[in-house]
Amino acid sequence: MIATQLGATHLQFLLQGALWTVVLSAIALVGGGLLGFLVALCRVSGSRAVRLASGAYVQVVQGTPLLVIMFLVFFGLPPLGLNVSPLAAASASLILYVSAYMGEIWRGCIESVPKPQWEAAECLAMSRTQRMFHVVLPQAVRIATPPTVGFLVQIIKNTSLASVVGFVELARAGQIINNSLFEPFLVYLIIALLYFAMCYPLSRWSRRLERRTGFARRQQVVSP
Amino acid sequence: MNLRLDFGVVLERWPLFLDGAWMTLQLAVLATLFGFALGALCAVGRRSGPPWLAKLCGGYVEAIRNTPLLVQIFLVYFGLASLGFSLSAFTVAALALTINVGAYTTEIMRAGFDSIPRGQLEAGECLGLSQRQVYWHVLLLPAMERVYPALTSQFVLLMLASSVTSQISAEELTAVANYIQSDTYRAFESYITVALFYLALSFVMRLGFWGLGLVLFPRRRRLGTPL
């Protein structure tokens, strides 16, 4: 009975939605990553004003729900004379959102590079920029890999909110199909499974990376 | 095209905003309390329960952490409806948020358990503490003290995430903003106002958790540092 209702066309439509979820996640990751990198650098900057300003940016974005940011961009900008497509609105909001969280994650990673590394680089007469790019960042990247992969899961899940501005990704595709079939439980279960199939491997990967780096670090401090 | 901002028509509907904020706060507090209880139980079950219970708790955590909250809310909403339960949007929202934050709490508590060195548990046994005393005084409470900051920021995130429940017409802050913007055609002003409400709420919650931390963990207060 179900098979006659939920056909191959529906599944194809859902998979197409899943593809857009992946595209949107990629946009958010690249755009948010670039902006987040800038935020992280500003957060550890030598200038107090830059640190404060970037800190305020992070606080404001992290204190606002992504859903409200989406609504603000999609419904709030057109009356002010700026027309945005659903894809542009979703991408812009996700980039803002991701940059604040990524920036904060990466700041933690930069700060967890041991202090003597900074001092040694300073003793070698490196400039601040050289210290950052030749000594600290290469080490921070290694620390940052597991949490970044973990955050990728958050990005994929949060793209589901793009459905509220009418962008047809996986969750919206599910809503559309449900409107014609009215089998909500079944449809949303399939959607959940598709999200799970995207996120679970990443979660596993992140945990494996974490265990590996964590193990290496624990080995150093183990007492006899 | 009218480029002027007009907060007046939006702000004169302030009682609606207050109602919405109150509902958001209620959702956050309910989900935090029940979610914490659920998460703590699952974390204990995962660590020391029989294998089937540990597997069940692990499966629950993975299932929730790898699917979007929006889809979970729809599943609970329509799932309960198709089972014949007709609950209010508020109840469904609180239930879905509880299930969601319970999984995150489980994972955070597990990290706390893992951070307690084995030697401490053995030392507790050597001092003649019973199994249950070791569990409570050496494992559970110190673990909670360590993960308290992570837990509280998860609960603040939960409050922000409760905005998603506007999609099943729970009348919290975001739903209020949707209503006001359709009423006044002042979308930008409505959403900015509601964003400020959320900022204020998250500030209030952080302040509350900070104060609660001082009361709950006197050692932390005396030393000024976590364990």
Automatic annotation (TrEMBL), chain A:
Statement: the UniProt record of this protein carries the keyword Membrane: yes
Pfam families: BPD_transp_1
Localization per record: Cell inner membrane; Cell membrane
Transmembrane regions: 20-44, 56-77, 185-203
CDD domains xref list: TM_PBP2 (cd06261)
UniProt keyword list: Cell membrane, Membrane, Transmembrane, Transmembrane helix, Transport
Membrane-protein topology: Multi-pass membrane protein
Chief subcellular location: membrane
SUPFAM superfamilies documented for this protein: MetI-like (SSF161098)
GO molecular function list: transmembrane transporter activity
Domain ABC transmembrane type-1 as annotated: residue spans: 18-206
Name this protein carries in UniProt: Amino acid ABC transporter permease
Taxonomic source organism: Teichococcus rhizosphaerae
UniProtKB/TrEMBL annotation, chain B:
Compartments it resides in: Cell inner membrane; Cell membrane
Positions of transmembrane segments: 20-45, 74-99, 195-217
CDD domains cross-referenced by the UniProt entry: TM_PBP2
Alphabetically ordered keywords of this record: Cell membrane, Membrane, Transmembrane, Transmembrane helix, Transport
Any one GO cellular component localisation term in the record: ATP-binding cassette (ABC) transporter complex
Source species, domain of life: Bacteria
Membrane topology listed for this record: Multi-pass membrane protein
Domain ABC transmembrane type-1: 21-209
UniProt-recorded Gene Ontology molecular function terms: transmembrane transporter activity
Entry-linked Pfam families: BPD_transp_1
Any Gene Ontology biological process: amino acid transport
Family membership: Belongs to the binding-protein-dependent transport system permease family. HisMQ subfamily.
Protein name as it appears in the record: ABC transporter permease
